[in-house]
Amino acid sequence: MPYIASIGTYLPCWGTSDSRVPGDDEDAITLAVEAGRAALESGGSVEYVVLVSRDLPLTESSNAAVLLAGLGLDPELEVIERLGGAPATLDALGSARPRTLVIGVDIDAAGAAAALTAERGLQVRTAARVSRSLPVRTRNSSGDVHDYGDPRLLKKRGYLASLATAWVDTPVVVAGVGRKDAELLAGDPVKLPTTGASASLFALAAMAEAGTVGPLVGIEQASLSGITVADGSASVLRREPTAQPLPESGHLATGDIPISLAAYERAFEAKVRWEAGKFSDSDELDFPPRYRVDGDGTLKTDYTFVELPRTGTVYTEVTVHAPVPGLKTPYTLVIVELDDVGVRALVRVTGVEAGTVDIGDRGRLVLRRVAVRSGVPDYGYAFEPDTAGAVGTGTEDAA
Fold first, then answer.
1. CB proximity list for 200: less than 8 A, separation 6 or greater
2. Would residue 284 count as lying in a domain?
3. Domain that residue 366 falls in
4. What whole-number distance in Å separates Cα of residue 276 and Cα of residue 270?
5. Quick one: which of 294, 289, 264, 258 has its CA closest to 374?
6. Cβ neighbours of residue 142 under 8 Å, at least 6 residues apart?
7. pTM of model > 0.85
8. Distance between CA atoms of 218 and 89, rounded to whole angstroms?
């Protein structure tokens, strides 16, 4: 019987209060990292990671390396990537062992949420599971989506029929359906920002904050999973800045820069884990890490990696308006002086319109998708100023 120690949520700053959209530098993995790091703020340990989404950027290979690096976790941890929506997330949570980080991510509407299990906390247990086939929405190998286009069929023969089959008590919260349908299914509906894999965890966060106990159901087409939220408490940290419209930008139709996978591999650890190199005979940090030539001409390669702070101050800035292959313009670059280590880093600005960051602005370094080259998403860090929007936090206990 799992216990939830902490829950973290993340919404991109772009879009509307009803539906968020990812920025040009965001995808399912960067959203997952934001939610996962929020859940880990309480300091819990992790031994397993489960990532649930229908929008994973890499399907021919694993997304685990970037996910673990962005979360700052051991690269040897087991990562399970599951294709699914709201029921799949609840399935993963209901069967999770202690110290498992379960993350659900969606792109349309965009959002991510994560829950960390432990030996104590908010108690949950599996209440129902129904698997029925009603493929009203499908996606082929090329990514083309076909929608049968019959919402009445989906409702009557889909989730309402599954609810009747499940013999579950009247749900307190229903995740995975539209707000109008949720009002029909729950006595006091909770406003959820997503309807996919993350919706179940957003619902769990709302129940933890409100001190609500009872059945939580996740629905996708005709499949259903439910858990019962019981006694206990869980900390909740929300990173949900105020919504703002996407700024206008330009993009070159041709001329994308191809990727060098050899260079990508060499820079991956330091760039995605946000680490500097430190030689044993020096207190200075090198970022990015690089070899040195000793006084006798010997090449020194014996540095170790040191984690860098993720907060800093803008030292200088510039906004680029000239079109650049593979990037949308305009965009702002800043040199950020990281806190307490004497390291300055050149990074892009995210979360605000180009040209709105000033010298002296404070902010944090966040994992973002730098570009997509030759079909490969390339990740690095960007500077999100504190003015990017209010971040809500909560630590309410469940009853």
1. 86, 87, 89, 90, 93, 104, 175, 176, 216, 218
2. no
3. 250-271+308-388
4. 6
5. 258
6. none
7. yes
8. 8
